[in-house]
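seq as requested:
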Amino acid sequence: MGEPEMDLSNQEYDALVRSKAKPSPLWKDLAWAFCVGGGICVVGQGLMEWYQSLGLEQEQAGTAVSVTLVLAAALLTGLGLFDKVAKRAGAGTLVPITGFANAMVSPALEFKSEGLITGTAAKLFVVAGPVLVFGISASVIYGLILVLLGQG
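struct tokens:
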């Protein structure tokens, strides 16, 4: 015997969903996202100043900061800690470059049981692939526009 069919209008369905949904603590979520995202940026700025104190120029230090933050986020994702922080901080962890690293590593971890090549390596670029394709394509188009306008 199957479930009885329910005929609900869209408005009735929306009302049912709203009655069952837990209210979101919006201001608390915003504060957490702001503090965690800001904290990641503070760490990035601290790393920038540290790398510059080691003798790197600003551009090189910026690259080193990006690599460090991506590596740290990938490592924290692998250890299962990034998701615990992200669950509480929401977009605060996703907006900075750390979110990109997490998005790359997470699919790879999900498929690690399929092996190093066909699982982890194949899934590592599920998110990065489109980002790279569209990023490179956009930069080429932007470059062509600048050349056509005589500014390139």
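The CA atoms of residues 12 and 18 lie 10 Å apart.
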